[in-house]
Design brief:
With about 220 residues, the chain is of the alpha/beta class. It is about 35% helix and about 15% strand. It has seven helices and six strands. Strands 1, 2, 3, 4, 5 and 6 form a six-stranded parallel β-sheet that branches. Helix 4 links the parallel strand 3 and strand 4. Helix 3 crosses helix 4. The termini are far apart. The mean pLDDT is about 90. Bound molecules: flavin mononucleotide (FMN). Flavin mononucleotide binds next to helix 1. The site of flavin mononucleotide (FMN) has 16 residues, from helix 1.
């Protein structure tokens, strides 16, 4: 791939992306993919805030703790990093055709802040796995809580199948066709985030009315 930036919008202000791998493993394939995404973003004029999942680790969610106003430090870091950026990118492992429990747990904790930090953020989902599905089922699972929380999940996701055999020693993808698809997908997402930041649509409030009367108990339901 030539080095000419594909990011073709006039840049008014650098767009900031929180990029993290949702694996805690030292030799994680998802961390490799997240690092490659960070490299592509920077090459195309974006700013990257790279995080590790260990920074967002939280104890199992317990509503009794939350009632006392307790938020674990991992949730606080996750919230701050989401709000300090214009968009986020997660590269998640697939565990048993779903997402890692600790990732959902961290999302649940962060969802309890008001204002709810995920609302109206743009997010891009990626996965890497040694299997032929590349962890893609986890991404469909991950869409559900994120969309529920108001994230604009980018339609095109990227799943790297046979990831253990797909990286060069420099951490790039060895397949040129996949490299092109990976970069074009990231640049399309960057253009969308740039548009959302500088040319926002008229804001609309979405109210889901399920018939229940607002009271302190139903307010606690996500
Ligand atoms: C409990 C468990 C369940 C797994 N289930 C799946 C699965 O459903 N689909 C899949 O593609 N890989 C599955 N894997 C393999 C992971 O994709 C593989 O370990 C991968 O390298 C994890 O991501 P990481 O390298 O970023 O840590 C599973 C691994 C574990 C430990």
């Amino acid at each position: 791939m030539e080095n000419k930036p594909l990011f073709n919008q006039p840049i008014q202000e650098q767009i900031r992306f929180l990029v993290f791998s949702a694996s805690l493993r030292k030799d994680s394939l998802n961390t490799r993919l997240a690092k490659l995404a960070a490299e592509v973003i920077e090459k195309n004029g974006g700013k990257v805030d790279f995080a590790g999942m260990s920074e967002f680790e939280c104890p199992s969610f317990n509503q009794d703790l939350e009632m006392n106003g307790t938020h674990p430090s991992g949730a606080e870091v996750f919230r701050k990093r989401l709000l300090a950026n214009d968009a986020f990118i997660i590269s998640s492992p697939e565990y048993n055709a779903s997402i890692p429990g600790y990732l959902k747990n961290a999302i649940d904790w962060v969802s309890r802040y008001r204002p709810q930090p995920f609302n109206e953020l743009n997010g891009l989902l990626m996965s890497a796995s040694p299997s032929m599905v590349g962890g893609n089922r986890a991404l469909w699972t991950l869409r559900i809580p994120l969309e529920h929380l108001g994230v604009r999940v980018f339609p095109t996701m990227f799943s790297l199948a046979m990831a253990h055999n797909s990286f060069t020693s420099e951490g790039h993808l060895s397949d040129p066709t996949l490299t092109k698809r990976f970069e074009e997908n990231l640049v399309a997402f960057m253009n969308l985030v740039e548009g959302a930041k500088h040319y926002p649509c008229i804001k609309k409030a979405w109210v889901e009315f399920l018939g229940e009367k607002p009271d302190p108990v139903t307010e606690q339901v996500g």
